[in-house]
Write a structure and sequence with these properties.
The longest helix has 4 residues. The chain has 1 helix and 3 strands, in the order βαββ. It is mainly β and 80 residues long.
């Protein structure tokens, strides 16, 4: 998280960002393009969630020229 991306977001991953080269690109993070927002990825939040509270699991979608593809879980942040 960082920039426009706050801790209250719905997109989470089970992959440690520090272990992935070019994480921002593979996570499909917003970069100030058509999305109009920017996730600077300055900070990392670690949390726990009950698997039944995961709304959807998918590959991260492409956004603002970033290709996506990493694991993404859509979770109500109140459940993390």
């Amino acid at each position: 998280m960082g920039g426009d991306a706050r801790a209250q977001g719905f997109s989470w991953t089970d992959i440690n960002p520090t272990t992935v080269r070019d994480y921002r690109n593979l996570a499909g993070l917003p970069s100030g393009g058509a999305s109009g927002s920017n996730n600077t990825a300055e900070f990392m939040i670690v949390g726990r969630v009950n698997r039944f509270d995961i709304i959807e699991s998918r590959q991260a979608l492409p956004l603002d020229g970033n290709i996506g593809g990493l694991n993404e879980h859509i979770i109500n942040p109140e459940k993390v």
